[in-house]
Structures
1.
Amino acid sequence: MKKVYLIPLLLIFIILIANDTFSEDSTDTTQNAFSIGILQSMIGSIILAAFQALIWGGYRLYLFVFRVKPIIAGIWKTSFTENENNGPSHETVTLKQKGSQVSGEIEYDDEGQKIIYKFKGSFKNLILTATYESKDPQEYERGSFSLQYKQKKKFKGQYVTFSKKEDSEPEFIAKEYTWEWIPK
């Protein structure tokens, strides 16, 4: 119950006290019975409002303590294999989360040249899906990824990208993709 609803009840109580309807020397039993009935109604309303607030507050506390979905905002380290001849490549992801919506930046160091991608997506039912593209308008690469929250602070899935390397035709690439959370 909102505090606004309690104001009229409080005003009625103040009016009754101001009229001295609860005086012990009053001989009018009808007036005393009416006053007692109003007082009981107000007390009942206050108890009901307190009980509702307790239930709602308890439910919100439960959601806070036992989070239904994890908070995934933070810094992540990715691993993927772009070329079978080389070892795994790594990126640093800065992820922001607002409810089920996610966004952020992916930073990749390609032999001393930093490439930064921006991404947007959602995190629902322990699945993170997003699309990304380079922040550099001259860069051709863009794609999407879908990752499942496997265990505490780890994602595993795949990415698909449309990439164009120098002296080659653009091609679709689909590879395994893992993220591991980096503690602060």
2.
Amino acid sequence: MKTTTILLLAACLVCRHAGAATADAAATPDTRYRIDVRAGALPVGTEGHGAGPALGLGAGYALTEHVDLTASGDVAAHGAALFGDSESFRSITAGARLYPLGRHTVVRPWLGAEGGWYGVRHVEDSLYFSHYYTPHVESRVRDSNGGGINFGSGVDVPLGRHVSIGTDVRYHQTLGVFDDPGFLTTMANVSFHFGH
């Protein structure tokens, strides 16, 4: 009986604390503007390339409780670090983010899609020896620019009124760039919120 009473009291305290945290998050008015700083990886390479780094900056403007307008600038690369083939991707895109549960919850899952400019640089490095056995490196660089789209999802967790942390997983599909490579980025992000 005593153990049951202690467990019930502990459960009530946990529920009360969770309810208070949810109420605080709901009572805290969200800020209108958001700046995102992202870093992570391009885990799945295209055309047999390996994984590589990915970085990004983003911005958002809250239209409603459930919808943000967004803009992003991202870079990602993969391939050989010294000799061999490598590819790098650059993009500037704009779109929207949907918060199905709203922006006044403790954990904020979201879905997003953006479209815009994509650029790809393909570098082929070759090491060869001249007739005097002197090593030479020859690089062949090809650039292509076109369009593209990205779509993905993530989760934001507020650490207070002005800072949140989260995840960002997106699939990018280039259009009109070489043979239209697609790639996946997985990033962790820190967001800074401000304005009313």
